[in-house]
Design a protein that fits this description.
Layout: H1 12-27, H2 37-43, H3 52-56, H4 86-105, H5 117-136, H6 141-164, H7 168-197, H8 212-228, H9 233-253, H10 256-276, H11 278-298, H12 308-314, H13 321-343, H14 367-370, H15 381-413, H16 417-429, H17 438-445, H18 449-460, H19 463-471, E1 482-483, E2 496-497, H20 506-527, H21 533-547, H22 549-553, H23 555-564, H24 581-584, H25 600-606
Parallel strand pairs: 1-2
Helix pairs in contact: 1-4, 1-7, 4-6, 5-6, 5-15, 6-21, 7-8, 7-9, 8-9, 8-10, 8-20, 10-11, 10-12, 10-20, 13-15, 15-20, 16-18, 18-25, 20-21
Length: 637
Amino acid sequence: MATRKHPTDIYKELRIFFLVVVGAALFLEAEGGTSDPWSIWARLFHDPFSAWHSDLSVWQADQQTAAVGGSLWLFDWKDVRIIVSPLELLLIIVLIGIFVRARMGGQPIKLTLGSLRTPLLVFVGCLAFGLVNGLTHGAAFNIALWEVRGFLMLILIFFLASILLREEAHANQLIWTVLIATTGLALENSLRWLFIFRNLTVADDLAFDHVDAIVLTFAIILCLSLLLIGGTRSQRAYAIFLLPLLIFVIEVMRRRAAFAVLIVGLAILFILLLRLRPQLTWKILIPVLLFTGMYLAVFWNNTSPLGQPARAVRSQVEPDQRDAASNLYRDAEKFDIVVNIQASPYVGIGFGAPYRQILMLEWKNSVGAIWPFFPYTTHNNILWIWMKSGAIGFIAFWWLLGSGVFEGSRAIETQREHWELVAALRNLLRSNRRGRRQMRRSRQLLRTKAAQSAALAYAQGRAARDETKRRARGAHEKRRRGFAWNVPTWERSDGLYTRTARRSGAVAALITAVCLIPMQVSFSYVDMGLNSERDLLLFGLALALISHAPAILGVDKEAASMKAVRPRAHSGATRFPAPKRTESGERTVDGATPDVDNGADLDLLKTGRSGVGVMAKGPASPGSPHGSDAPQPSRRS
């Protein structure tokens, strides 16, 4: 008998290489100041080769002094005109490797953009229009390219992740990539603060990369999701170790944007947790609110690292001198953005074109002297999208974000056991919607083993957890194995099976990806979140996870298995004879004839607490292939 060959993973090595590149991009800072020698080398990974001369000149690393790179430079970096960075070059190599590997393996490239395909393509079209609009109105190409460089990174990462990250195991590999990369980033920032910036009386705004705020807060939400929703034992153990370190680094960085982003992420996390684990949410939320109130009361006027979260809240109502200057700068910038939007509300001014500055002229000799993109880019990147690409591009941008939140939340809803029960019964009833025997088919499907198992699990309800925990108290007692609702991972030693807290981080990764969307909006509103390649690389990964959430969570496989057993009606002039009862009604999800007994499980099914009743048929008698012809009365609890 010939064995069926399963398709091999031809992209395994490329996936590992891709995750290594992603981890390096998250670990290495793009803008880390000049006080730390490591930050100088790290930014070389993100800057184009043509900009390496200016980066190395900070250390006077030229051919004469040779302060960096050995005793001899082979060429002068001023002569290099390569406009791609090492990060971009490595991702292009991955893209080429995918085509080569598919060609050598004889398999087509399965590029499916998922549920976010339409809004993503529309947004890409709006970006192209904004780029052409700017170039046709006299914008410089290099400036326009720099403004859309982050969006090009998002698109490239989305396409690569759509090919390489398509399964639950791939999501777990991505989780480890993020955890390891953020561990290195947190340790490096901690050492930088300890040896360089610890004794500074005035905080250096450029001491740490601004994008570290979104990367580290994303890792914090991921660790909390692994602990609350579920993950593998190693992932949860590592999250317990990493979470205090991340919180410490956020404290010493002294960036109020990081705390604002973290508050938004925690709020969305609790909303999603309430949908999956309502009992646990209320047990956690009330102590958290009480602790937050006491913390704000004690550290309201504290300026130490421990008081930085309170400072982020207090700065909104009582800003100090530093925060007041920052607020004034952003208010003036917002005023000028609104003026430019009113001048061209529909098509925008285009990428690469300078915007009209009125109040911002006050900072032209200070900020404009050290920032070359001062006439082109604003800190408020949300309204900047409208100013550059017009109303259509602004609407497409929000369509993409809104679709991401909707599709991600809908995929998370499938992990609620109550909804899984409804979906299972609905798929069973969908197996025959056509024909005159629809009602008969539905009744017969409710007699199947799959429907009875689903209703039995729901009938047990929350009492199953208490009952099994009570039975498992004895060391040598037999533990019950069955379904339970909203059982956390650390209570699974009693043999319960739960989809919400299964030993995989895929659900936690998806929840963190959904939380990242409002976090990205809040960060981009104040701190140029849409101009950074490093930031949009992480955002592109999150959108790719959301777009392929059904495949990662296995939802599409369950739907395909339901469709596989659905009988198809004959399309010719004649019809096949009606199948027998054992061929049509008495089939399970796997297509096998069920063997349903009327033992304790069926009795519990008929008298369940939840009020769900199903029609049950007695076992088939040995003398009749179709069982007893006498119908059994239905029972309702």
